[in-house]
Sequence to fold (202 residues):
Amino acid sequence: MGDYGRIEVILGNMYSGKTPALIDRMGRYRAEGEVVQIFKPALDDRFGLSKVQSHNQAHTEAYDVSDIGELLKKLQSDVEVIGIEEAQFFPGTIIPFCVDQANSGRIVVAAALYHDFRGQPFPFKDSARTVFDLAAIADEVSVLTSKCEYPKNGTRKKCGQPAPWVQRFINGEIAPKDSPTIMVGAHDSYSVRCRQHFVRYD
Fold:
């Protein structure tokens, strides 16, 4: 492990480039001679198992884990940099895990959605804590934005304004507020929205 541990958090909406940013950052650490290991939640099987892949097809090898306990079992002793994809799908124990690893000299790079479909800070599984709590204890936070996909004036053009929120749809209709927080999907279920076009829940 290195002499100086740290926590780096990459926050953003869907389609903002979080995964390419994680893949690129881990690739740079590898190029610097660091021993790297990447983990992803097992429930996210959109692009298959044992790899992290973005919507633009960038991908790299990863270990599928269901929780932090399983991650620790698969964590190799010589690893110097830990990458975590879709960190919002992990339990809240991811926060003390990141702190412990950074304090031991490792670098932790975690990529996560910052809002859920209700427009609230994304809560960790089985926890009152959110990704904002993880960002609060990070040494570095990068925030990436998407472009609003709302149809512009009834044409095929999109709004294109910065889009921090994501709208969830079920059968073409805006999902009810009491829908499960975690529902893995892509353009078939979600569309990114700017402040003007995001339909908020009262």
In short: The two ends are 48 Å apart (CA to CA).
